[in-house]
Amino acid sequence: MANTSLSIGPAGWTRPDWNRTVYDKAARRGTHPLDVLCRYSNLAEIDRTFHEPLKPEIARLYAAKARKHDGFLFTALLGRCFTHDRVLDDASVEAWRAGLLPLLRAGCLGALIMQFPWAFRFNEENRQHLIRLRRAFHDFPLAAEMRHDSWLLDEAVTTLIDYHVAIVNVDQPEYFRAMPAGAHLTSGVAIVRLHGRANPAAFRDFDAPPDSTYLYNLHELLEWKPRLARLTANAARTLVIATNGAAGRSLVNALQLEEILGRTPLEAPPALLAAYPAELAAFHAPRPVQPNLLPAQAA
Hints:
By secondary structure, this protein is of the alpha/beta class.
């Protein structure tokens, strides 16, 4: 790999539709999804934690899978009860902490992402809420995805720096006062999340469901090459997550970014190659392993 401090990977890898487009029948038989994904990516986002805490035994399983592949990392979303509903009771904090601590202790949690809504604009009340969250999860590598551009004000950026919260650089649809794409760095970890560029309402409206069906074209991904070069030159670690998980699209775009950045070998799951032949034209399936043949019996 060209840069071992750069990790690129998908969200959505637990979606049922990946059983058709990523994990074909042969790969699924007795195989955990991470056993497949770890062959093609060095990062995966755990998005289920946006709605519920992770069970500690599941986190331990994920950590065990990651340890088999040197350098494999996860990002995870902090619960929307903290970022949207502003719940901060001890029971909720403990539930999310307990579910994520196995990943943290195993050294495979790259970032815990607070995904705030567009309505979370920079003001003193919201600044204090951010600080309270930082204190509640003081030992986690926190990152903040802000969708309102007021968080680029000097005072807002200074707050993130002072409290060691990484800012998430987002690629999202254009709409009024949306956070623009950039290469901002407020901690030692640089983070990029690619959400797609269609359906602004999915990002502007408070409770709109996410839109995971967008597929980036090569020109749109190339726009991120100079930004990623700037981030990797200045950050200790750079994490890039494609969140457009429907039918494996996030893995397609993650692999295309790997290609743009010159990584080798260019391998992809056979089912994904069949589903996206044009986008993954430069990729090939891993070479099948020749089974050991039994010696011929004497006549």
